[in-house]
Protein backbone atom coordinates (compact mmCIF):
# COMPACT_ATOMS: atom_id res chain seq x y z
CA UNK A 1 0.00 0.00 0.00
CA UNK A 2 1.57 3.33 -1.01
CA UNK A 3 2.51 5.53 1.94
CA UNK A 4 0.36 8.47 0.74
CA UNK A 5 -2.71 6.24 0.43
CA UNK A 6 -2.09 4.85 3.93
CA UNK A 7 -1.74 8.38 5.30
CA UNK A 8 -5.02 9.46 3.71
CA UNK A 9 -6.77 6.33 4.96
CA UNK A 10 -5.48 6.76 8.50
CA UNK A 11 -6.34 10.45 8.56
CA UNK A 12 -9.85 9.74 7.33
CA UNK A 13 -10.25 7.00 9.91
CA UNK A 14 -9.02 9.31 12.64
CA UNK A 15 -11.54 11.93 11.64
CA UNK A 16 -14.37 9.43 11.61
CA UNK A 17 -13.44 8.20 15.06
CA UNK A 18 -13.15 11.74 16.36
CA UNK A 19 -16.32 12.96 14.65
CA UNK A 20 -18.30 13.60 17.82
CA UNK A 21 -15.55 15.92 19.08
CA UNK A 22 -15.23 17.91 15.85
CA UNK A 23 -17.91 20.10 14.32
CA UNK A 24 -17.55 18.52 10.89
CA UNK A 25 -20.82 20.01 9.68
CA UNK A 26 -18.90 23.30 9.57
CA UNK A 27 -16.41 21.78 7.11
CA UNK A 28 -18.93 21.71 4.25
CA UNK A 29 -18.40 25.36 3.36
CA UNK A 30 -20.37 25.22 0.11
CA UNK A 31 -23.26 23.26 1.67
CA UNK A 32 -23.30 20.53 -0.98
CA UNK A 33 -23.43 17.71 1.59
CA UNK A 34 -19.89 16.47 0.88
CA UNK A 35 -16.30 17.45 1.52
CA UNK A 36 -14.05 18.57 -1.28
CA UNK A 37 -10.34 18.02 -0.70
CA UNK A 38 -10.06 21.74 0.12
CA UNK A 39 -12.87 21.54 2.70
CA UNK A 40 -11.47 18.32 4.17
CA UNK A 41 -7.98 19.76 4.47
CA UNK A 42 -9.26 23.03 5.95
CA UNK A 43 -11.42 21.18 8.47
CA UNK A 44 -8.65 18.84 9.42
CA UNK A 45 -6.26 21.74 9.85
CA UNK A 46 -8.77 23.65 11.97
CA UNK A 47 -9.33 20.61 14.15
CA UNK A 48 -5.57 20.49 14.73
CA UNK A 49 -5.65 16.75 15.16
CA UNK A 50 -3.31 15.87 12.32
CA UNK A 51 -0.65 18.36 13.37
CA UNK A 52 -0.95 17.29 17.01
CA UNK A 53 -0.68 13.59 16.16
CA UNK A 54 2.19 14.06 13.67
CA UNK A 55 4.78 13.98 16.45
CA UNK A 56 7.80 13.99 14.16
CA UNK A 57 6.40 16.79 11.97
CA UNK A 58 6.97 14.97 8.69
CA UNK A 59 3.47 15.71 7.38
CA UNK A 60 2.43 12.05 7.54
CA UNK A 61 0.91 9.92 10.27
CA UNK A 62 2.79 6.73 10.96
CA UNK A 63 0.91 3.79 12.43
CA UNK A 64 2.50 4.54 15.80
CA UNK A 65 1.45 8.22 15.67
CA UNK A 66 -2.08 7.28 14.64
CA UNK A 67 -2.42 4.70 17.40
CA UNK A 68 -0.96 7.02 20.03
CA UNK A 69 -3.32 9.82 18.99
CA UNK A 70 -6.38 7.60 19.13
CA UNK A 71 -5.29 6.09 22.42
CA UNK A 72 -4.69 9.49 24.01
CA UNK A 73 -8.13 10.65 22.87
CA UNK A 74 -9.80 7.97 24.97
CA UNK A 75 -7.33 7.75 27.87
CA UNK A 76 -9.04 10.71 29.55
CA UNK A 77 -7.14 10.48 32.82
CA UNK A 78 -3.77 9.91 31.10
CA UNK A 79 -2.90 6.82 33.13
CA UNK A 80 -1.88 4.78 30.09
CA UNK A 81 -4.87 2.44 30.41
CA UNK A 82 -8.32 2.51 28.79
CA UNK A 83 -10.55 1.71 31.75
CA UNK A 84 -14.25 0.81 31.70
CA UNK A 85 -15.63 4.36 31.56
CA UNK A 86 -13.14 5.35 28.87
CA UNK A 87 -14.04 2.23 26.89
CA UNK A 88 -17.70 3.21 27.19
CA UNK A 89 -16.82 6.57 25.60
CA UNK A 90 -15.03 4.80 22.76
CA UNK A 91 -17.95 2.43 22.23
CA UNK A 92 -20.39 5.37 22.27
CA UNK A 93 -18.41 7.19 19.58
CA UNK A 94 -18.56 4.14 17.32
CA UNK A 95 -22.26 3.68 18.08
CA UNK A 96 -22.91 7.35 17.24
CA UNK A 97 -21.03 6.92 13.96
CA UNK A 98 -23.13 3.86 13.11
CA UNK A 99 -26.30 5.84 13.89
CA UNK A 100 -25.14 8.66 11.60
CA UNK A 101 -24.55 6.18 8.76
CA UNK A 102 -28.03 4.71 9.28
CA UNK A 103 -29.54 8.19 8.92
CA UNK A 104 -28.04 8.63 5.43
Automatic annotation (TrEMBL):
Keyword Signal attached: yes
One Gene Ontology term of the molecular function aspect: calcium ion binding
Residues of the signal peptide: 1-23
Annotated ranges, domain EF-hand: 49-76
Top-level taxon of origin: Bacteria
Record keywords: Signal
Acidic residues compositional bias, start-end: 82-104
Region described as Disordered: spans on this chain: 72-104
Keyword check for Transferase: no
Name of the protein in its database record: EF hand
Amino acid sequence: MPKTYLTALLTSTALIVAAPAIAEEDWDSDGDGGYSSTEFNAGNSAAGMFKEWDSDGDGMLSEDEFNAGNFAKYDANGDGVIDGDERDDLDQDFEDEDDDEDDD
